[in-house]
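hey so u asked for the seq, here:
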Amino acid sequence: MKLDPTKMKDWQIAEAAENWMKPIQDIGREFGLLDSEIIPMGRAVAKVDHAAVMARVGNNTPGRYVDVTAITPTPLGEGKTTTTVGLIQGLGKLGKCASGAIRQPSGGPTFNIKGGAAGGGLAQCIPLGPISIRLTGDIDAVTNANNLAMVALTARLQHEHNYDDGRLAQRGLRRLDIDPARVQMKWVMDFCAQALRDIRIGRGGKMDGYEMDSGFAISASSELMAILAVAKDLADMRKRIARIVVALDKRGRDITTADLEVDGAMTAWMFEAINPNLMQTMEGQPIFVHAGPFANIAIGQSSIVADLLGARLAEYHVTESGFGADIGFEKFWNLKCRMSGLRPSAVVIVATIRALKMHGGGPAVKPGLPLSPEYVAENVGLVERGCENLVAHIETVRKSGLRPVVCINSFYTDKGSEIEKVRQIAEKHGAYVAISEHWLRGGEGARELSEAVIAACEEGNTFRFLYDLEMPLRQRIERIAKDIYGADGVTYTDVAKQKALELEADPSTVSLGTCMVKSHLSLSHDPNLKGRPRGWVLPVRDIMVCKGAGFIVPIAGDIKLMPGTGSNPAFRNIDVDWKTNRITGLM
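ran it, structure tokens below
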């Protein structure tokens, strides 16, 4: 059956591809997994017993390790997941054993404007229904574990408010003296619910909880999701969960999940989630789906566990980082690689003519609305001006010691003259360049990209981090702001400056990494500044600490940890065909 992405929707292609999909046990066996290491979750999805696999292959020399990132995207995204899947398929066409790791789509964008994140066209992870909705319940586990910590906190606040020390002692409790104005966590849910960003809880009587301000964030931004991404095994995850700071007491000391005696129960919610989910590309290669998205408000990486497995079982393991190289790759480079011990062999920067035209001064790209004519008409000038953004990302990757591969993710509306201009500019600035038609032609369309990635891997590199952990916090923030974002400097609100001073004086935070939160729609903090902004400073408004995950989180600009649902959300088109028992309308 010939599948034509120009005439079919992604969900229709994915549904058709399920007709030749392999049983998941066969995918695992072909990948070198033993039957005892595969935990089937239906015909098409399995969890993998990572502890058993690592005990068997943990001493194997890792294969080539490739990260996929991008230029600053339009709100529509530029196809990182599609490129990740296409590259795995393309390497397969060249006879290479290739695997991948992508992030599990969040229900927020899946049911909102952007849609899911399982790839597109002939480069998809299948089956589409499970990956888009719930999968094996990892995000549910993150949500429930996070909210259990909030239940423990709010219940303790109520009891400490209502009971004296004697009555607390009768219940086996000691007074923690929690400061309700200094709660560090939020409730979470896996939807974009702007109405829940700031709420008042505990209203009613004495038995209805402690009245205080609270709020919701999206599940992918939870510290539990970050821990799922960076933990190396169950024991590591258990220790990290115990270090989560839920609130401060009235003297400013940490109140952790261990203090609330909820850390063990939270781990009980999470312990199955540590095993990565195994699925397949449309061409039958193994791909792990593990941890969550949103590198703008979280670490936004596929999991270390998945990468440790894939790198030891495959010749080439391709992993995905969120959004542009300024945030996704920067966190992969300075956080994930530092924590995993893995070192990349190559980095792919995904670019589209559409995004380059936007950065060159093209009309605003708005989700849910048709693209302006400028995005399909030939305009080399717009593309050339927009390449300033591409060059910034090339320079970022080169600062890590790697020579990037620029993947021109080709749309069938692109013009040859526009593509040639991108090639000239990227090569001039020291990058490999490849055109890829994986969306249109699957693995066969990714041959040029795959050959360029192999060449980059064979070239070798001198990988190095941007900063040492001994560097003081504000110096690190300034290094990232100036060297990666292109800022002239950094400013702090009084609250952020005070927190920075306290953290710099605290020896227990020296080993924590730095996980920046800022807009993904610009190199700057301001989503309206396109291209390569100059003459600006980065405003840090607040700083959070994630001691369990192992990093400090400076928050720049007005970005929210809970996105909002738009006026034309994807859920309007999603339904179930009761005759075929299939989900329809997924993007």
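The longest helix spans residues 138-162. DSSP finds 20 helices and 25 strands in the chain.
lmk if thats what u needed
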